[in-house]
Structures are given as structure tokens and as C-alpha cells.
């Protein structure tokens, strides 16, 4: 029942076309993550699904029902906003109960559902507080609580963790994954954060300039990116791209190789000077300037003995190469 | 540094004394017994008394201050509350959908700048036809017009300051417009309503021209009533009683203004800058 | 906009629009009808059409032009005085106010008193037998001017209006002054700028927009003055304090010349409207620049 189908959806603001011909079927219970550079239209797409904006083209179906012409209040979805958008004049309890009261549920039922959500999200001690008296993480949980009580066909999240600090973000990410396992409801999730995308998603949708670049499970996207854009967008530091003679030698216009697939190898083809080293604890990132080819990043496990100014020869296993022509993957 | 601080207090004291002098003089006069006023017009009271206030607050055939006060109160309440009721829905439509940006908004806001006398005469004729002359409701209605511009401005500003996401969240929660307005927008506008009400009440209470022209007996507001008191006594004005009437008439807005002065300053800027 | 949204918007706008139509739209029509007719209170329901006769009578009336000149002068002078005083008080007292907020409440008291009451209070304060001001003049200087005679009355009403409404300019400018970006002043001070120079070169330019608004509002209110002049001196000795509003009021209620009063009101409306459009165009250009 919680499927979301986008059929040729497009959106223009006046002259500016922000989204073009988006086709996407999201399965019941799927955790679908939208990623892409800033301004590519992620939020807009989410708002189209939510019914907060009207589509300029195409149809949207939710649970098999065409909702294109419906207002958001008739679509049976719920949304967690980046700013949380908690009602500042209502207590936590009233915030969570608002949707249920709007639906005119009997009082006992409202109380029961609010209590259940509060228990699940550990909000019980906070129920009578105002949002202004809560910490960022608590507000975030209230926002989630407010959306789960409606038992929506699908959840929409617009960068819900971006206002939290790093450790809280990691914690909440895990809770979200657990919540999804427990509820089994379809989730559509917009984020900037690659780690969130990789860890949470059943499927990732990479958007670029209003179009879908690639859709697939995280591993597929990482291991077999369909375009140069996807290849460089996922992964940090991003994939090294090599053009020119070295690429032609491997039968490609552009050659891609991930930093972790480069290694120090005296018999390797590329020799250069180490320009900069970043030691991150688990691993060490080195940036090596290799003449014509340009700067390559490599990732070595643990604390690798690399120093700026040192000459280094790099090699790789041919099986780890990605080959692109005209921006698209070949082979 | 120290000298400047003393100088500032001095400037404050002089400004406060000079600007408030008539109020002070009136208060002093009101506290003097009848014989003393013309014999000793100074600010020093030889034998302070509340006699004048006692006379004012006792109903007599010359003066029923309660009737005046009641007229002022009723008309000022209508004049302060009605604009809020009228402006709230359309202010939302303006802030969120741009309704009336071209004509209605400038029209209403510019009312502030028009001499009130322009409305008074045609209204007199209209009220005469409708039987609204000398009624509290009639007076309240036109006071509402006087307060419309500021009410509209302040409420539009308040709605624009509410994050749009709150309304979107309510829509996602299944609420339609009436419920969004009642449960989300309206509660968040309460501070603006209070400010609007205070301004409106003070303005309406203090209004004189319409009271003078549109009322004669039954609905006379206290500002006009107090001036009758000056005129009717002819040559021999009873200064003490007249002063006491004025103090009583001026007290409600004075108290409101002094208690709420913080609110008045900030929102005056908001009201003026956008307008 | 979808149809149901349009309907919603119409419902939202309806209360205000209907109210305005009822209470202003109808009178506008009445104004035009009666402005073009001869009417007295006895013939209120049967105006007889006389074309532009009322207008030519108004334009030919010297007292109308005197009233216009009075209002204009009064508006400009009081607005300038109030804004100058208000600016001085706001800027000079700001440090005091920052620590003792209640001082503001004392300074704004005059503006929350009804202007009509204030006129009466001045009448009392200036009264030659009961008023403290003449009393002290005599006591200290052995002499007191006749505040309300033909020579002095203009100055008297100007001072009365100024003292009552300086708080308005003060409050507006104070609010603006308090929201000036602190870092600008601090940067200037660190750069060695003296207070006086800081005011002229940095704070005053930043306050200019608010100052223009204050001047404009005060001018408008001075121009349309009625209450305090009316209760203090009426139209004054020989009618020299007849403002536009008082002129129209007297034509209407004293002389019962409804047609002439309305014609004058329509002319006044035209003038105010022109002025307003002009001011707004200027304001827009200033903001755009
Ligand atoms: N209401 C609007 N009117 C006009 N243009 C808009 C509107 N909303 C969004 N846009 C434009 O549409 C484009 C996509 O915006 P959107 O907010 O969807 O991007 P995003 O992918 O969510 O970006 P971010 O990662 O920064 O949140 C942007 O260029 C933006 O300027
Ligand atoms: Mg976004």
C-alpha cells in the first residue's frame, strides 16, 4: 500500500525548469534516499510528492492512487522538516496529537497513540514541555514522533539530521534505521550526507541539475557508478579521474580509480611527488602530484609512512578501474 | 563620563517636566479646593483635597461622568477589536498569497494619512439616514476605520514573521486552511493582536472629532464631554472640577501607555517603516 | 491559482472589503452628490444639483486659502521642530535609557493623552487667572504675554503641538537608533572616531530613512490638526488659527453650508492624495537607490 510512483514528473518556477521528467517507482517499505549537489532539486521533488508544490508535468501515485491533483492533507503522507517546524505554542504532547485531532480521532485513541509514540522515541518526560525548552536532538525526535502517529503511507524527510552535531547525528541515524525496520513504512529521505545515504538507503537516487543520474542500491552505485558524476559524487575523497593517454591506454576516455584502490607499488605506472598528507586515524590520505595526470588521492590503511616532498610510485589492480566515455560508464 | 551622566539626567528631567507640564498643572489644579485655584495658581498646593474628584465621580444633573466613560469604553472597544477581526484573514491572504497587494493594502494604509474630517461629513449624512447618529456603535464603527491602517500593517508583519514551514507542517498533518488559521497562525499572532489592541484602544479613546460631530447626547465620549464642561460654565469655569474631569478622562490611555510603553516603541517602528 | 483557492481568498478578503465598501464607499458617493448640490440641514434629503458651484465658492473664499496656508505652515514647522527635538532626545538619552527603561514611559506620556484633552490642559495652564504659567511669568519677570492673542496664538499652538508630539518622533527614532548595527559604531570607535563625528558621519545617515518617515508622519498629523487647536482656542482671534479641518468643520456645523464643506473636503482629499503619491514615489526611489 505504501508505494510511491513518479511518472514523468517535472517542475518549473516561472521560466526556470527545476525538475525534468522524473521517473521513479518506490516500493512498499523501501528506504529511498535522494542525494545530489545543492540546488539540484531534491527538496523540490520531496515537496512535489508531499503536495506542498504543484507539479508542472507528470503524475504522482501513492499507494496506487493518483494524487496529482490532491492537496497535501489528502495524500496521507507525513513529513519531517529540516527546521523541524514544531508548533512553538503547543506542548510536545499537543504537537504530536495535532494530526490525530485534526483527523477527529476519539480522545482515548489520541492519548494511546501519543503515549505509544512517546515511548518509542523516549519522549515521555518531555511531553508537557514547549519546543523552545528542548535540545536540538529532542526537537528532532518530537518531529519524528509527530509524523509517525499518523501512520502515513510514507514518510518524507528533508535533511532531518543536518541541524544536529556529529555524534548526535550518528546516533539518530542508527535510531532511524531501527525505526524503519520496526515500522516497515516507505521512507523518502533527502540528504547531503553520504554516510547517511550509504548506511540508510535500500536504494539511492542521485539527482543532478533536475534529472536522475542513477538509481540503485548503495553498493551498486559505489561499485558500478553509471556516470562520471555519480562516480565522483559518492565517496570521499572522491574517485580519481584520469584522462588523456593513460586513459586511452586502458581503452577509455576517462579512467576512474578510487583512492583506496591505489597503492604504493615501485613497479606501477605513475610516479609523482607527495604534496600533502592527512592522517585520519583509521587510514591515511595522501595527495600525489603526478606530472601530466594531475593530482591523485590515495588511501592507505592505518598510519602510512608518507611525507610531503617524497617521491612515490603508484600502482593499481586493473580490475578496480572504472572506464567512462562521454561521461557514461563503458564495460 | 560622570558629568555626562549628570547632564543626561538633567536633560531628561527638563524634557519630562516641560512636555508633561500641562498634565502636571491639571493634576495640581484638580487637587486644590475651589477657592485656592485663582488665588494661588502656582504648582504648590496649600490644602490638598480630593473634593473635586468626589464631585466628578458623583452623578449629578450637570455631569454623569460614568455615562461618558461608558460611551468611550464601548466605542473604543469596538474601534480596537473590529479592525483585528477584519484584518486577520485578509492579512494572511496578503502575506501568503499576495492578495490585495496592488490596491487594497495601499488603500487601507494610506487612510492613515487622510484628514479625518473628510470622512466626517459624508458619514454624518449617512448616519443621519441610517439612524446611527449619536450611537455608540456608530462611533465605534468609524473609530475602527481610523485604526484599520495600523492594524493591517502590524498583523501582516506578524504573519510574515511566522515560518512558512509551520503552515506546511500543519498541511502535512492533514489540516485545512480554517484549522491552520485557527490553531497555528492565530495563536502565533497573539502578541501582535495585543499591540494592535493597545494602540487601537488608545487612539479610539482619545479621538475627538468624530465624537464631536457624530454624537450629541446619548453616545458622547468623555473627550467631548470634558470639553462641554469647559464651555458650558461660561465665564465662571470651575477649574478644579474641570481639571478633575480631564484627569479622569486621560487616565485610561495614560495607564495603558505607561504600562505598555515597551510594546509601543518597537511596533511603531515596524508600523512606520513598512508603511 | 486553482478555483477553490481563489474562492478561499475571496472569503478571506470579504470582511474587510465589505466593511470598507459600506463605511467608506457609500460616503464617497454621498460626498460627490452633495458636493455638487446645494444642501442645508433642513434639506438634507433633497439636495438640489448646482454643478461645480460649491467648488468655485470654495476656491473664491479667502478663508479657505488662509486655512490651507495655516495648515501647511503649521504642519511643516511642528514636524521639523518635533523631529529635531525627538532626534536630540533619542540620541542623547539613549545611554540613560539603556539602563533605565522606565524613563521612556515618562517621556511618552503626552502622546497618549487625547489631543483634545491636551488642548484643554493648555487652556488651563495658560489661563491668566488660574494658569501656573502666567503666574510664574509675573512672579519672576513681572510680565506675562497674552498667549492666545492674535500676535502670539500661532506660536502658542505650535509649541503646544510640538511638546505633545515630540515624544512620537522621539520614540520612533529611539527604536531605530537602538536597532542600529552596533558593530558599525564599535568599529568606528576603535578607529578613533569621536562621538560627535560618529553621530554626523555614521549614525545620522543610518537614521535618515526613519527621520524622513517621522517627518512625513508628523507633517501629515500637523496638517490635518483639529482637536487640540479646537479645544485650546477654537478658530482663534479673527479666525487666524483656522486649520483646514477647522475650516471644513465650521462650514459644516456652524454655517450649515454642507455643499461648501464637502467641496472643501474633496479638494483637501485631492491635495492629500497627490502629496501622498508623491511622497511614496520619492520613498520608492530612495529605497531603490
Ligand atoms: N519557490 C521557488 N521559486 C523559485 N525557485 C525555486 C523555488 N524553490 C526552489 N527553487 C529553485 O529550485 C532549485 C532547486 O531547489 P531545491 O530547494 O529543490 O534544491 P535542493 O536540492 O533541495 O538544494 P539544497 O541541497 O541546497 O537544499 C534551486 O535552484 C532553487 O533556487
Ligand atoms: Mg533542500
Mind explaining what this structure looks like?
- The complex is a heterotrimer of chains A (331), B (275) and C (289).
- Chain A is an alpha+beta fold.
- Chain A folds into 2 domains: 4-226, 3-Layer(aba) Sandwich (Rossmann fold); 236-329, Nucleic acid-binding proteins (OB fold (Dihydrolipoamide Acetyltransferase, E2P), Beta Barrel).
- Chain A has helices spanning 42-50, 92-102, 107-120, 136-148, 166-183, 194-200, 218-223, 228-233, 245-249; strands at 4-13, 16-26, 31-35, 57-62, 65-66, 77-80, 154-158, 186-190, 203-208, 211-216, 240-243, 254-257, 262-264, 270-279, 283-290, 294-301, 311-316, 322-325, 328-329.
- Chain A is globular.
- Chain B is mainly α and 275 residues long.
- Chain B has 2 domains: 1-49, no CATH class; 61-269, MetI-like fold.
- Chain B is 76% helix and 0% strand.
- Chain B has 14 helices and no strands.
- The longest helix of chain B has 33 residues, at 65-97.
- With 289 residues, chain C is mainly alpha-helical.
- Chain C has a domain at 73-242: MetI-like fold (Orthogonal Bundle).
- Chains in contact: A-B, B-C.
- The interface between B and C is large, with 97 and 101 residues.
- Bound molecules: adenosine-5'-triphosphate and magnesium ion.
- Residues 13, 18, 36, 38-44, 192 of chain A line the site of adenosine-5'-triphosphate.
What's a quick, concise take on this entry?
Chain A is an alpha+beta fold and 331 residues long. Chain A has helices at 42-50, 92-102, 107-120, 136-148, 166-183, 194-200, 218-223, 228-233, 245-249, and strands at 4-13, 16-26, 31-35, 57-62, 65-66, 77-80, 154-158, 186-190, 203-208, 211-216, 240-243, 254-257, 262-264, 270-279, 283-290, 294-301, 311-316, 322-325, 328-329. In chain A, 39% of the residues are buried.
Keywords for this structure?
heterotrimer, A: 331 residues, alpha+beta, Rossmann fold, OB fold (Dihydrolipoamide Acetyltransferase, E2P), 2 domains, six-stranded mixed sheet, five-stranded antiparallel sheet, 9 helices, 19 strands, 27% helix, globular, B: 275 residues, mainly alpha, MetI-like fold, 14 helices, 76% helix, binds adenosine-5'-triphosphate, binds magnesium ion
Amino acid at each position: 500500500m505504501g508505494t510511491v510512483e513518479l511518472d514523468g514528473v517535472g517542475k518549473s518556477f516561472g521560466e526556470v525548469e527545476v525538475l525534468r521528467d522524473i521517473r521513479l517507482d518506490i516500493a512498499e517499505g523501501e528506504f529511498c534516499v535522494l542525494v545530489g549537489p545543492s540546488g539540484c532539486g531534491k527538496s523540490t521533488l520531496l515537496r512535489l510528492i508531499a503536495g506542498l508544490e504543484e507539479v508542472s508535468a507528470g503524475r504522482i501515485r501513492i499507494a496506487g492512487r493518483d494524487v496529482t491533483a490532491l492537496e497535501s492533507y489528502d495524500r496521507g503522507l507525513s513529513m519531517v522538516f529540516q527546521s523541524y517546524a514544531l508548533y512553538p505554542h503547543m506542548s510536545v504532547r499537543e504537537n504530536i496529537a495535532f494530526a490525530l485531532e485534526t483527523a477527529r480521532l476519539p480522545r482515548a485513541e489520541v492519548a494511546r497513540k501519543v503515549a505509544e509514540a512517546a515511548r518509542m522515541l523516549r519522549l515521555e518526560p518531555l511531553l508537557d514541555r514547549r519546543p523552545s525548552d528542548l535540545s536540538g536532538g529532542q526537537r528532532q525526535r518530537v518531529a519524528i514522533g509527530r509524523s509517525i502517529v499518523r501512520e502515513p503511507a510514507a514518510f518524507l524527510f528533508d535533511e532531518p539530521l543536518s541541524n544536529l552535531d556529529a555524534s548526535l547525528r550518528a546516533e539518530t541515524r542508527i535510531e532511524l534505521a531501527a525505526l524503519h525496520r520496526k515500522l516497515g513504512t516507505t521512507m523518502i529521505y533527502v540528504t547531503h550526507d553520504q554516510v547517511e545515504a550509504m548506511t540508510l538507503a535500500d536504494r539511492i537516487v542521485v539527482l543532478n541539475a533536475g534529472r536522475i543520474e542513477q538509481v540503485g542500491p548503495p553498493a551498486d552505485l559505489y561499485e558500478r557508478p553509471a556516470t562520471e558524476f555519480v562516480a565522483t559524487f559518492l565517496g570521499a575523497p572522491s574517485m580519481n579521474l584520469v584522462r588523456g593517454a593513460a586513459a586511452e591506454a586502458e581503452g577509455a576516455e576517462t579512467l576512474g580509480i578510487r583512492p583506496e584502490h591505489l597503492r604504493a607499488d615501485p613497479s606501477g605506472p605513475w610516479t609523482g611527488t607527495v604534496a600533502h598528507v592527512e592522517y585520519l586515524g583509521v587510514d591515511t590520505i595522501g595527495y600525489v602530484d603526478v606530472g601530466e595526470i594531475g593530482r591523485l588521492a590515495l588511501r592507505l590503511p592505518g598510519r602510512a609512512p608518507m611525507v610531503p616532498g617524497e617521491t612515490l610510485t603508484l600502482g593499481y589492480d586493473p580490475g578496480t578501474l572504472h572506464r567512462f566515455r562521454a561521461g557514461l560508464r563503458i564495460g | 563620563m560622570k558629568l555626562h551622566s549628570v547632564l543626561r539626567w538633567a536633560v531628561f528631567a527638563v524634557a519630562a517636566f516641560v512636555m508633561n507640564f500641562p498634565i502636571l498643572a491639571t493634576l495640581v489644579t484638580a487637587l486644590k479646593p475651589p477657592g485656592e485655584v485663582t488665588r494661588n495658581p502656582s504648582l504648590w498646593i496649600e490644602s490638598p483635597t480630593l473634593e473635586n474628584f468626589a464631585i466628578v465621580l458623583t452623578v449629578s444633573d450637570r455631569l454623569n461622568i460614568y455615562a461618558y466613560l461608558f460611551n468611550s469604553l464601548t466605542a473604543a472597544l469596538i474601534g480596537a477589536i473590529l479592525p483585528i477581526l477584519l484584518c486577520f484573514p485578509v492579512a494572511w491572504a496578503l502575506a501568503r498569497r499576495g492578495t490585495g497587494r496592488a490596491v487594497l493594502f495601499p488603500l487601507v494604509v494610506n487612510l492613515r494619512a487622510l484628514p479625518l474630517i473628510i470622512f466626517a461629513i459624508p458619514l454624518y449624512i449617512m448616519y443621519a439616514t441610517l439612524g446611527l447618529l449619536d450611537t455608540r456603535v456608530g462611533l465605534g464603527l468609524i473609530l475602527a476605520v481610523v485604526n484599520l491602517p495600523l492594524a493591517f500593517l502590524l498583523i501582516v508583519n506578524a504573519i510574515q514573521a511566522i515560518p512558512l514551514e509551520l503552515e506546511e507542517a500543519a498541511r502535512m498533518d492533514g489540516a485545512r486552511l480554517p484549522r491552520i488559521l485557527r490553531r497555528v497562525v492565530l495563536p502565533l499572532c497573539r502578541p501582535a493582536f495585543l499591540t494592535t489592541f493597545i494602540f487601537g484602544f488608545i487612539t479610539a479613546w482619545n479621538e475627538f472629532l468624530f465624537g464631536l460631530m457624530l454624537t450629541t447626547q446619548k453616545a458622547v465620549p468623555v473627550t467631548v464631554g470634558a470639553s462641554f464642561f469647559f464651555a458650558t460654565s461660561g465665564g465662571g469655569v470651575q477649574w478644579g472640577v474641570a481639571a478633575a474631569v480631564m484627569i479622569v478622562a486621560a487616565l485610561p490611555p495614560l495607564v495603558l501607555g505607561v504600562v505598555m510603553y515597551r510594546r509601543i516603541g518597537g511596533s511603531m517602528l515596524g508600523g512606520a517603516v513598512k508603511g | 491559482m486553482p478555483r477553490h483557492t481563489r474562492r478561499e481568498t475571496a472569503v478571506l478578503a470579504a470582511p474587510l472589503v465589505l466593511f470598507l465598501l459600506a463605511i467608506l464607499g457609500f460616503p464617497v458617493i454621498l460626498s460627490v452628490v452633495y458636493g455638487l448640490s446645494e444642501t442645508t440641514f433642513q434639506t438634507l434629503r433633497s439636495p438640489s444639483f448646482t454643478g461645480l458651484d460649491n467648488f468655485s465658492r470654495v476656491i473664491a473664499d479667502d478663508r479657505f486659502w488662509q486655512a490651507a496656508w495655516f495648515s501647511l505652515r503649521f504642519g511643516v514647522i511642528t514636524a521639523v521642530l518635533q523631529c529635531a527635538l525627538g532626534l536630540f532626545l533619542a540620541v542623547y538619552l539613549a545611554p540613560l535609557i539603556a539602563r533605565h527603561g522606565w524613563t521612556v514611559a515618562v517621556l511618552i506620556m503626552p502622546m497618549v493623552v487625547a489631543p483634545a484633552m491636551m488642548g484643554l490642559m493648555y487652556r488651563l495652564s495658560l489661563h491668566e487667572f488660574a494658569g501656573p504659567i502666567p503666574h510664574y511669568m509675573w512672579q519672576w519677570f513681572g510680565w506675562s504675554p497674552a498667549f492666545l492673542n492674535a500676535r502670539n496664538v500661532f506660536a502658542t499652538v505650535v509649541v503646544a503641538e510640538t511638546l505633545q508630539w515630540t515624544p512620537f518622533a522621539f520614540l520612533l527614532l529611539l527604536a531605530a537608533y537602538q536597532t542600529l548595527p552596533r558593530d558599525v559604531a564599535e568599529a568606528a570607535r576603535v578607529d578613533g572616531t569621536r562621538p560627535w563625528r560618529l553621530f554626523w558621519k555614521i549614525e545620522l545617515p543610518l537614521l535618515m530613512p526613519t527621520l524622513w518617515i517621522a517627518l512625513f508622519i508628523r507633517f501629515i498629523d500637523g496638517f490635518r490638526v483639529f482637536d487640540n487647536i479646537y479645544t485650546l482656542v477654537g478658530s482663534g482671534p479673527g479666525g487666524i488659527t483656522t486649520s483646514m479641518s477647522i475650516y471644513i468643520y465650521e462650514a459644516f456645523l456652524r454655517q450649515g453650508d454642507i455643499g461648501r464643506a464637502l467641496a472643501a473636503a474633496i479638494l483637501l482629499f485631492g491635495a492629500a492624495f497627490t502629496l501622498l503619491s508623491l511622497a511614496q514615489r520619492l520613498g520608492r526611489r530612495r529605497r531603490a537607490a
